[in-house]
Amino acid sequence: MSTCDLAELRGLFLFEALTDDQLARLCADARIETFPAGRLCREGDPAKHFYVLLDGEIALSKRSGDRDIDIWRASEPGVYCGAWSAFLRDPDVRYENSASLTRPSRLLVLDAETLGEFLAAEFPMATHLLVGHSHGRFHAHQILGPHDRLVQLGKLTAGLTHELNNPAAAAVRAANALRTQIAGMRHRRAELPAHELSPAAMASLVELQDRIAEIAGKPKALTPVEKSDLEEALGQWLEGRGVTDAWEHAATFAEAGLDVDWMERISASRCCESAAGLDPVVRWLATTAETELLLTELTDSTTRISTLIEQTKQYSQLDRAPLGVADVHDLLDSTLAMFAHRLGEVTVVRDFDRSLPALPCYPAELNQVWTNLIENALDAMTGHPGHPSPVLTVHTRRELDMVRVEVRDNGRGIPGDLMERVFDPFFTTKPFGNGAGLGLDIAARIVDRHNGSLWAESNRGDTRFITSLPLATSGSVAASQEGPSDG
């Protein structure tokens, strides 16, 4: 342990604005110590000391569940940690993060009580403002935090419920119709003139049924006009041959992608050698095609439900550790899926650079960023009569060792006098009750935690929120060379 050097402290950004007397007073109550690599202070313990790095490296971490997650690392002289909130002069203040030294380091050490007295004496007005701001933010977060989370959860739940309801209802409808079709198939099987059919004719009928089931199980993608023309041709063919319910069967065969050539094949087969035999065979095969179409609808609906659940898992990252690597496009797609209920009238342009490498990040947190940016873009474009058709553009590209993500809307734009305030906590232009003004503040904090940057550019009809994130190669995606303002 040694006394501090005024000249050395004067060279640190933290103290450069202090007067000589202030610096001397601070230095008289401080000490310089060299610490080995290892734990410096632990989150939740009483905040007894304030540390300023002179030489070495500090790493901060925060507890999440049963893990300590790195949030910041720096080796620049002057960065600080520990009892940064000593200005509160509260004996029950706790360390908000854990701090460790990655190698032997030399630190300036101040007792929290000493620092608090120094700040109150030398900067009384600033101290009062900081205390008021800290208490105000704490109480506001206590009151608004749960409310905002519930509001956001309610919006996403409503959207997800809407998206799940459509395929679920389709699956229920298809299952009920399928039950009816199977019952009808049993009755129509009895209508077949089985006693009149030779073994070869029965084999021909079974072969036709298998082929039609195979085709109906993978129906062709026809345009509405093509399907209408096909249905017209089939209806005329079936009606001309006296088939019962000809136009109803024509609609089924057209949906399955079966054309007049297939009707000719049925007519020419051994099971339809007599005119009277064609009618029950067509109705039997139409029931087969309808059954396969319903099975396809059931499969498509349940697959859609499964896909939505998978996208929800991707969005919430329930099946991932907090820290990992992710394809930024998967994150963006899963977030857009959560907003599907609001995208009906919105043209979504995905301008993605799919060659981008995986991004080291906290995926669930980045999804929160995309949620806030996309929701703001949608709010800016919708509900304004006379506004052009809304277009939401999500653009990605690589810039050197950074990934750039733009969320762009063609809304009314942000007035110039408000641009500097959009990231301020509690600032919002939405009507009272529609937002607490914390979305962009939270997004900016998350991006900062990733050692990235978030900013806005706006003109009428072209507003962009741009996120730049590092393709980090170090062990911590939040590595930084400058300490955060809250230490």
Describe the protein in words.
This protein has 13 helices and 15 strands. The protein is of the alpha+beta class. The protein folds into 3 domains: 6-122, Jelly Rolls (Sandwich); 162-307, no CATH class; 320-470, 2-Layer Sandwich (Heat Shock Protein 90). The strands form 4 sheets. A 5-stranded mixed sheet has the order 10-12-13-15-14. A 4-stranded antiparallel sheet has the order 1-8-3-6. The chain starts with 5 loop residues before the first helix and ends in a 17-residue tail after the last strand. Mean pLDDT is 77; it is low at 431-437 and 473-487.
List the helices and strands and how they pair.
Elements: H1 6-10, H2 20-28, E1 31-35, E2 38-41, E3 49-55, E4 58-64, E5 67-74, E6 80-82, E7 98-101, E8 105-111, H3 112-122, H4 124-191, H5 199-217, H6 224-240, H7 246-256, H8 260-268, H9 275-316, E9 324-326, H10 328-338, E10 347-351, E11 359-361, H11 363-381, E12 391-399, E13 402-409, H12 416-419, H13 439-449, E14 453-459, E15 462-470
Parallel strand pairs: 10-12
Antiparallel strand pairs: 1-8, 2-7, 3-6, 3-8, 4-5, 4-7, 9-11, 12-13, 13-15, 14-15
Total of domains = 3
What are the secondary-structure elements, in order, as H or E? HHEEEEEEEEHHHHHHHEHEEHEEHHEE
Strand share of the residues? 15-25%
Q: Within the largest sheet, what's the order of strands?
A: 10-12-13-15-14
Give the CATH H-level superfamily of the largest domain: Histidine kinase-like ATPase, C-terminal domain
Radius of gyration: 34 Å
Q: How many strands in all?
A: 15
Main sheet record: 5 strands, mixed
Helix segment tally? 13
Q: Roughly what percent helix?
A: 40-55%
Q: State mean pLDDT (0 to 100 scale).
A: 77
From the spread of the alpha carbons, the general shape counts as: elongated
Domain Cyclic nucleotide-binding: 14-119
Catalytic activity: ATP + protein L-histidine = ADP + protein N-phospho-L-histidine
Protein name: histidine kinase
Keywords: Kinase, Transferase, Two-component regulatory system
